[in-house]
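for the writeup, i need someone to sanity check this before i put it in the appendix. the sequnce is what the collaborator sent (i think, or maybe the updated version? ugh). structure was predicted straight from it, no edits. if anything looks off just tell me and ill rerun, i have time this weekend
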Amino acid sequence: MKKACVLLAPGCEEMEAVIILDVLRRGGVETVSAGLVSGVFAASRDVKLEADVPLDDLQGAKDFDLLVMPGGLPGTQALREDPRVRDLLLHYLQAPGKRVGAICAAALVLGAHGLLEGRRFTCYPGVADQIQGGTYVEERVVEDGNLITSQGPGTAMAFALKLVELLTDAETAKQVADAMLFTA
């Protein structure tokens, strides 16, 4: 079974976080949320969330098949400033068979660490001009090698289904979409 880790930070975009977690789990992907902080925290719209495990306590942090970052502010700034996140991103983008997903403003984290050089990506259009490196593409979901990016809350379902497809197969992603009555 494929495994995914979703990084959660205070101020993350709650729709993106919950949709990603939910859809990956529906697709049969063993999914863990790891929080930059322990306990309950407020997301970007003051919805209260709690990660499955604090990042410091996460066993096998480099053993997942996929590392995903929801966007949202100020969650993206917290991810960008955390050296643990930078180290994980470097590992996942360089290790064979590993993938990284980033949606909305989370592409800022990748750009801040020079991880978009030579890559196509998408993000929330309002932050595209703040991202260093890479080539911004105005598409809902962009796959460039082992990096998958998406634009924002309205594209979270398509993004999460693409992650399911990449970790399992197209048929599983279609079954999940059909069961949720989702049409792209």
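The radius of gyration is 15 Å. The longest strand covers residues 3-8.
thx in advance!!
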